[in-house]
Each structure stands twice: as C-alpha cells, then as structure tokens.
Amino acid sequence: MAARWPGLVRLGYGLTGDRWLAEDVAQAALASAYAAWWRVRRADDPDAYVRRILINTCNRRFRRHRVAEHAREPRELPDSVIADPSDVIGERSVLLAALRELPARQRAIVVLRYWDDLSDAQVAATLGCSAGTVRSQASRALAKLRASTALAGQEGSQ
Amino acid sequence: MNTIGEQDLRRRLRADIDTVRPAPAPVGAVIRRGRAVRARRRAAAASGVTAVAAAVAMVLSVQAGANPASPATPAGSRLAARSGDAARVLDPPSRPHGNVVASGVIAGTSWRLSVRDIADPGARCLPAIMLNGSDADLLSTTPGTQQAMTDVAFLSVVPGQPGAGYAAIQVAPAVTRLVAYLRNGTRLLVRPVTVRACGQRLHLAGFGYPGSGVARITASSGAQFTTQATPPASMFGSASGTPGTAGRLVPGVWAHMWGAGDVTASGTIGSGRLSSGSWHISVLLGAGGECYTAAAFDGRVATRAIECVPIEPPPATASLQRVRLAPGTGLTGYAGLVSPRAAYLVASLSGGGTTRVRPAQIAGRGYVALAVPAGRALARLALYDRSGHPFATINPAPAAG
Questions:
Q1: Which has the least CB within 10 A, B60, B257, B281, B397?
Q2: Which one of B6, B41, B369 has the shortest CB-CB distance to A78?
C-alpha cells in the first residue's frame, strides 16, 4: 500500500487539481480496495483495478459536489492571521485548471495516457471502454485543451 | 488557440503532477475505513437477502391461501393487544405540530425530534432532524423510493442524557409502520409521519430507546412485510475509545447505517501561508457531522487532522472550536460557525494585534477559520454586522495547559 500511495495521490491530483482532495480520494480508493480485497487480488491487473476505483471515487465526488460549494478562489478567501493571506494552499496550474473543464472521462484519459504513460489498451482496461474510444476521446480532449482560453492566455503571456 | 502538442502536454503534466509530495501513506486510516466500508456492505447485503426471503415467504403463503402476515412482523394491533410482552405503540400526534416527528419521555426527561431548516435565513434550505432543537442530522430532500428505509440513523451518545438513545428513519412514502426490536426485549410500533420542509414532503419516523440499543427494525406497507435493517452493536457503544477511530461514537453526532461518509457540502473556510509552506482549514458537512479538516505543509512534511462535532443551527453569535493544526508549526487553529448577522469578525490576539476575518458561506451557513501563531492566543472576538456595527463580543476560554 505504501508503495502505491504516492502514485495514487498524484493520479488523484491530476484528476482533481487539489492535493488535499487527492489524498482523500486515494485513501477512499485504497479503503474500498481493502474492503473487497479478494476481488482486487483476483483481478488480472490489480493496479488497474485500484486506479479504476480511484477514478470512480473522483467522479462520484464531482457528481455529489456539482450543486455544492467548491473551494473559494484566492481573492474570496477569508483573511488570515498569517502574513499574505491572499494566497491559496495549492497553487493550481493553468493546465490542471483547463483539465477540470474537460468531461470526467476525457480528463481521466488525458492523465492516464499522458502522465501515467499507459498504453491505449491499458487505459481502456482501466476505464472499461475500447481502445478506439480512448483514442477518439484523447483526440477530442486535446482539441479542447488547444481551444482553452486559459492555456492560450498563458502562452501569450510567456 | 494554443499549440499544445502531445509531447508538450506530457511534459507539462509531469511538471505539475510529479511535484506533489504526498504525506506518508495513512495505512491505519485506510484499514479502519476499509473495515467500515466492508461492514456497511455486509449490513446492506443482509437486509437485501432478508427482503428477498420475506418476499418468497409471502408469495408461498399467498399461494397456499394463508394469511400473508409474517410471524416475524406482527401487525400493529396484535402487537399492541399483547400484554406482558413489553410491547409499546408509539403513534405520532394526530396533528403533527411544528414539524415534530416524535416525542416522549425517557428516564424523566422529555424529548422531541423535529425537522427544521438549519441554513442561514435567506440562504438555500438545509433540512435537518434535531433532538430537542440541537444535535442535528441532515435529511435528504431527494430520497430514493426503491428502498423502504432510505436512511437509518442513531444518536446513541447524547450529552447530558446517559442511558438514552434516539433513532431517526427516513422511509419511502409507501411505508405505513415500523417495528423496532430493542436489545432489552421491548418492541415499539412506530408510525411514520409526513412533514414539509424546504418545499418537500419528507416521510420520517423516530423513537427513543434505552442505552442498550436497537436489535433490528422492520418496515412494512399495510400487512405486507417490506424489509428490515439490523444495525451493528458498535452503533450503540459508548463515546470511549481512541479518538479518530472508525468505531468511536462522537457525542451528539448521529451514526448512519448507510452512507456514513456522505458529504452534503464542503469548502475551504480559511487558509494562509507559512514561511515555507501553507495551511488551510475546510469544513465537511454531512452524515458524519460537522467535520473540520486542518491541513498544513511546512515545506517538508504535510500533516492533516480532522475533528467532527455535532451539527447545530446557526448561533446567535459564534461557536468556535480549537482544531489541531500541524503540531510542528506552533499554530493554533480555530474554526466554527458564526451568526448569519455577522459580516465580518475582528480577532484580537494576546500581546496586541488584530485581524479581520470574513465568514465563508458553505451550504448557506457562515463559517470562519483562523490560525494564531506560536506564543500568542486568541484573546477576543468581536462580531460586526453589515453596517459595521459591533453586535457581540466573545472572550474565548484560555487554552488548557
């Protein structure tokens, strides 16, 4: 578990853009895996199985929080006793912010394919879809990222 | 349009994601949480198997021309007519008043379970069932109709009421009665009531019980058996135990048979920077109560602590509590709920200096969080309304030790 933990947290971070939420979903995913360990052990690829649990956990959180409040933007945060209160905890990159605009499946495909370096077949096995779907969704996700005004603005400012 | 390519995307994702340095793997917490998940799944599976078995039994009895009422689920009249079997009938008031779900007297103390909106006035509605106007438990305004009992919660550790516990059950509209089999042998017949809250009709039942707890609850529609729930004995333990362990009951916080980890709303209520890191405090409002998560990263180590307290309605002034915030940093964290009237608060620290804090709105309730540096303490908290007039002052109790 200790060996898998950093990778799962980073995968969660890629999917959520929030390191604290990432640790929480990684813990929830490992707890679910522990609860159904016999099923994980029987899986062809236990790592892929746990990754899938984590992705499903993220998706459930997003669905549940769709009508709930989200962490406030830096300018809206309450003042703090500590100096420089306007900074947020996790500085979200522009790319991760753009990723959050993608549908859940496309976001998962981007992170698994381009960060985790999984093959299309491995991504397909993790998400329970076909390799063709992975390729087409990845292509759409890239097109959306290219059209992202946030990323364009960042490039323009560089 | 930007020109991001596959290689560029790969490089930038690694640059962003690989820089995250997670805290050490929380092996103990994962195992405790995993055991809780497993217990919930087993309880749900057991109730499902019982329902199927009951349905089969009912079909067989109908085919044989027998009375479909199962001996395991006596009809209310029969239950009430028996003498000496410690059965009691709890009928709701004929005219439910003030959204009262149930009321009674246990050990000479009167109690009442009622429904009210616990969001700030003018904010979105947040219905909750409360014991004597306190210790709230959030209710779903969109419960499923496929299950007879959509939520079963117990309040077994009640501050100031040792030896008494309470149950709140959200049921499908078709359910007409419930039978609670208490661990001391008593049976209670409970009839659900319909209350209006937040523009919805909520179907609820509630009852009080002695500290020994509840063995099982059956819900039925007419003379037909529907389903039963068997709560684990751990839901009726004491508040003793290691803080933070899964089996520990928090006084004033309802324990749910299903969906114990469900979060209704969450959000950051305070944050700041350290010399080489950061801290933040967030609140999670849900089935586990009102939980404050304090996290800090001092440049080397990330720490995280969670404290859960009973959900209460908005206070007239403020209700703050100390939260553990990164022992190594020396910070003392404070978090809590403030009056809907408060537009901002001014915190005065020992040794001089003030800071202004604005409430964050989470689920229509105002929360604040702040951190006090090492060697100083929160001496006074003044609350100001939208016009800038102070309307309350709080002097927090000095820190123990």
A1: B397
A2: B369
Q: How far apart are CA B318 and CA B383, in angstroms?
A: 8
Residues A32 and A1 in one domain: yes
* CA distance from start to end of chain A: 40
Query: Does any CB of chain A come closer than 8 Å to the CB of residue B107?
Result: no
Domain containing B79 equals 29-256
**Is the domain of B120 the same as that of B223?**
yes
Distance CA B336, CA B193 (A): 33
Answer whether B362 touches A (CB < 8 Å): yes
**Which segments in chain B show pLDDT lower than 70?**
1-3, 46-98, 143-146, 222-226, 238-248, 275, 326-327, 397-401
Q: Is residue A98 part of a domain?
A: yes
Distance separating alpha carbons of residues B292 and B327, to the nearest angstrom:
16
| pLDDT (tens digit per residue) in B262-273 | 888 888 999 888
- The strands making up B214-221's β-sheet, listed across from edge to edge, are B87-90, B187-190, B177-182, B214-221, B224-229
- Chain B residue at shortest CA distance from A17: B17
Q: Are residues B237 and B273 in the same domain?
A: no
Question: Is the CB of B45 inside 8 Å of chain A's CB atoms?
Answer: no
Query: Shortest CB distance from A14 goes to which of B3, B17, B38?
Result: B17
Q: Say if A77 falls within a structural domain.
A: no
Check whether residue A99 and residue A51 sit in a common domain.
Answer: no
Look up the pTM and report it.
Answer: 0.55
* Cross-chain CB nearest to B2 (options A89, A110, A151): A151
Question: In angstroms, how far is CA B148 from the centroid of its own chain?
Answer: 21
* B286/B236 same-domain check: no
Q: Are residues A58 and A14 in the same domain?
A: yes
Pair (B172, B113) in one structural domain: yes
Number of structural domains, chain A?
2
Per-residue pLDDT tens over the stretch A39-91: 888 887 888 889 999 998 888 776 544 433 333 333 333 333 333 322 333 33
Question: Which member of A2, A26, A152 has the closest CB to residue B2?
Answer: A152
Distance from CA of B111 to the nearest CA of A (A): 32
CB pairs under 8 A between A and B: 191
Question: Taking Cα atoms as reference points, which of B189, B210, B219 lies closest to residue B82?
Answer: B189
B389 and chain A in contact, CB less than 8 A: no
Q: What is the ipTM of this complex?
A: 0.77
